[in-house]
Amino acid sequence: MPGFAAPLFDNAIFSHSPAGAIFGAQAGWNWHASPSWVLGLEADWQWSGQSETACTFACLPASGAGALLSIVDDQSLKWFGTARGRIGWLSPGGSLWYATGGAAWGRVDQTLTLTATPGFFASGTGAAASFGENKLGWTIGAGVETPLANQWSLKAEYLYVDLGTVTNSFTTAISPAVVPPATTQITSSSSDIRDHIFRLGLNYHFGGPAGPVEVAGPMYTKAPPRAAPVGWNGFYGGLNAGAAIARNPTTDTTLVPGAVFPVFGADTFSHASVGGVIGGQIGWNWRVAPTWVLGAEADWQWAHQTDSACVSECLSFGFQPATLLGLIDEQTIKWFGTARGRFGWVSPGGTLWYATGGLAWGRVEDSLALVTTPGFVAPGAATTASFSHDRIGWTMGAGVEAPLVDKWSVKAEYLYVDLGSVTDSFTSALAPGVVRGATFQTTTTDYSVHDHIVRFGNQLPYRLTHSSNACRRRSFGARPRLRVAERASRAGRSEPRAFFGSGSFPTSQWAAPAIPSKALTA
Q: For the chain, which residues make up each domain, given as ranges?
């Protein structure tokens, strides 16, 4: 509020976490540069339904005359596209494991809405402004693509998209009697747009099959269908590592029982705890049919996911003594584990695509800290509190696992973990007379834990169904007898190929971006 003695009225810092479905198409070009390496280019366009709404600055249901009650911030990602290079490695079964990166662009929309009691604004009790901006940025990611029948292939992909910073602001006229001599209020928002995308896709390859072609002589001719691979039986174990981002809807409430207006704060937003994960897994596979596998798997993960928010004004100083300036809320996921069933389909090249789900458990921690000027709480009263909970919930996801050499395999996996809801609170004694009719304040946080995990791992069977050397060599499926001849020929005749496809992620839970935001009201 320009002109006021202490012009900064609000400085909320939190993470927007828009989520939603995406759907689109891609086109690209591959060049088989050597027997095991592929270079390529790809461009795609995606419709996006990702959006989220947060409410900061106390978000009060009622207050005295001439008071600002809330700032509602709604952000959405309408569409995005990328143009990327790809470099990939072909596994023995013909699956392409690739890294990708390049340029990205997209449309970011935002609406800011202010609500106040009568007498705060020069006219009415609300004000709003909408903004839209096309942003240019960059992207990086990884994926796996497996040949299916004829010229079709199936892919799973993760992309991180950074569209830079978006800053919006608008000015509202306020009543001259509210905070003289100020006559206007400026509301601004600054956000860093960072999107995490998980998607499945189907590609059609022009000019040749999606993967390596088996040849029977000097000509490139397709061989008769081979028998389904054997293996995918028995116990296994391995290690994994990756990253995770949570989307935890949170409500932080500050109550002062006995006051005329007891609700001092009721902010709603989403924590986006992000960090690395590392751990190990053990499991068991049963090949129930030539192309179908059942199994069970358990894992434990160390995690370092954390996110901090400052809401309810969150001022760095007070314009009067005995003032509540804000609430700092930090959430952390320390570790988690799962016990899941697996149900998978074995592709013609021996790669296993599977769905998985079951139980999950983990430890979540939360720290709350009140920010006040001297004289608001009683001497020695608590202004901070820490909490820790071991939670049990559920998980579901999907993955792809491809054979390597001997008995080793490599996998990429996505998991959604839901650890339920958590409520924490603590009470602080107030200084005498600071709030008429009140002697204490209760600070409460309610949140639910929804974690999105992407990880890569390797696995080694403990024992195989058959112990002969021949079976060990074929534990994940016999390799085509003529693949070596084909690759040697292809090494001398690198073949560029174009492809076109489409991809979608139809569930809103599986596209979880983290958009650190800072909302200012001056």
A: 1-213+498-522, 236-485
